[in-house]
Amino acid sequence: MAEENPVYVKFGYSESAGAKIDLLSSEMSLLNILKIAKRYDSLREKELEIKSNIYKNIKKLDLAMKKTKAVFPFINIPKNIKRKELNKKETKIITEENVDEGLESQLNDIQERLKSISRY
Question: Which of 26, 38, 89, 92 has its CA 20 to 30 A from that of 10?
Answer without folding.
Answer: 26
